[in-house]
Fold this protein.
Amino acid sequence: MAATIIIGVLIALYAAVIIRKKVKDVKAGKFCSCGCDSCPSKCHTK
């Protein structure tokens, strides 16, 4: 049972790190990772 709790906590921490990184990227204007000029969504320009 303790192993299950530890694994659950580790998964939750990993998810929190990923979500935090995504939020920081969105605030910095990085909505996608395409980096191409022909991107139809123009997500890399402000």
Remarks:
- The chain has a mean pLDDT of 80.
